[in-house]
Amino acid sequence: MTDDFVPRRAIEDDPVDAPDAATTGVPTPGVPATGVPGTAGKRTERPHPLTPFIRGWVVLLAAIIAFGREFVSFDPNRRLPPVPWIVLGVAGVALIAAVAGYITWRFTRFVIDSEELRIETGALFRRSTRVAFDKVQSIDVVQPLAARLFGLAELQIDVGSHERFKVRYLSLARAYALRDYLLARARGSQAELAETARSTSVLTDLNEADEVLIKVPPQTLLLAAVTSHEFWGIVLGGVALAVAGLATGQWWLLLAAAVPTISGLFGFVTRRVTGQFNYTLSRRAHGLRISRGLTSLTSQSLPARRIQAVQLSQSPVWRRLGLYRIDIEVIGWGAVTEDEDKSGVSSILLPAGTMEQVQVALAAIWPRVDFTTVPLEGAPKRARWLHPFSQPFLRWGHDDQLVVSRHGWLVRRWQLVPLARVQSVRIEQGPVSRRLRLADLAFDTAGGHIDVHASGLDAGPLSARQTELLQLVRHHVGPDVSDPVVPDAPTEPPADPQTEGPDALRADQADETISSTE
To answer: Is residue 391 part of a domain?
Structure first.
C-alpha cells in the first residue's frame, strides 16, 4: 500500500508539546481538558483515569491463573510454595502492572486541532501518530467487558489499512461525541466537538435522530444458531465418534464424544448469540452503523463505498425457515469472519434475517442495484460430471451494474459484486473441464477475501462474455452503486419477498426435467 493512501505518520522521538498547567492536571472523567493556550481550536485530552486499571486487569488475571495452577497440580511429589509467598507474588505483579499502567496513562494524550487527530504516547521513546480528518473511513466504538462495567469505551479509527488506530479509554458518552465529530469532519463538515453524546439505550448505540433499518431479536439468533450447518456439523461429529465406540465395544469413547460435543455446541451457540445480541442496523447523518453484543458492545461504522463483494448463505434448515446470512468483503477489514474477531471487527452484515430484511440491508449499502432482477442462466447438463450434486443449482448472470453467482448443494450461496468493484475477469479451465467443454469464470476484487466465481459454464461463448464484462468494467460510467437514489428519479417497485427471492425463476428460467436415462 502506498504511503499517500495510508494517512499515518508515525514519528519516533517526536517531541510532545510542552505541558502546561491546563494539561498536566487530571481532568474530570468524561470532560475534556482545556485547550493549549495560544492555539485556536486546539484541544488536548488524556484517557480516562481508570484506563490503567482496565488495561492492567488482564495481566493480574494471568498472574492469578499462573499461581493458581500450583494448587491444582496432581503431582504428589511437587511441593507447593508457601501461601504468603504466592500472595506476595500476585501483589507484586499487580503493583508492577499498576505502575506501568499509570506511566502509560500519564504520557498519553489526544490532541485535536483544525486538520487532524494526534495520538501521543511514550515516556522514554515518544511516538506521535497523526490521523488526518479527511482520511478517516470509519470509526468503531468498542466496549470490552471490563471497560463496559465501568462505562468506558475505546475508539477504533479505520483509515483504509489493516492497522487501526485506537483511542482508549474514554467515557462512553465522550467516545460517542468524539466519534460523531471525527466522522463529521471526515465528510467535510465544520462541526463543533460536543462535550458528550448520549444514547437512548445501554444495549445499542442509538439516539432520537437514528433511523432503525433492521433489528434481529435474540430468539431469532438462537433459532439460527441451532439450525445452522455448523451446529449440525458438530453434532454429526460427536455421533460418528459415539457410533465408532459402540461398534468397537469401547464404551469410553461415548464419554470422549459427549464432553467435547456438548462443550463445542454450547460454545458455538454462546458465541453466535452473545456476539450478535440485539443486532441493530441503523442510519444516521454520518452513515450506516451496526451495534451488537451482550458482554461487550460494539458500534461499528459501515463504509458502503469500500464494500467490494457480498455473499448470502443459507443452510438446509434455513431454507425451510426462510433465513439468510449476509457477509461482506471490505477493504482494510481483513478476511471474512465467522464471528467477531479479537479486535472487534465483524464482516457480518446480517447474522440471520428474512428475504425482506436481506433486501433492506442490501438497499442500505447499494441502493442503486437489486440482485433479484438480474437474469440468471444455469449450467449445462454435462456439468453434472464435475458437479454431480450442485449442477441443478448453479446459476450466474449480470446486468450493466451487478454480477450475481449462485452455487452450493448443501449450503446455498449467492455472491454479488458490482462491476465497478471488479478488478479483473478470469477464465479457469482444467483438463477434465476442457474435455467436457466447460470452464469457470472468476471475478477478482480489491479485497480478495470472497472468491466470487461462476462454475460449470459452457466454454464456447465464455470468451465473448468475458470481453463483454471487461468492456462494462473499463467503461463503467454513472454514479456509484452506493450513492443514494435521487428522490424524484423513477424506480422499480421492490420485489415481493413473499413471492420472489433469489431462487424465484421466471418462465424462461425453468429447470428442464433431467431423465434418469440421460
So the answer is: yes
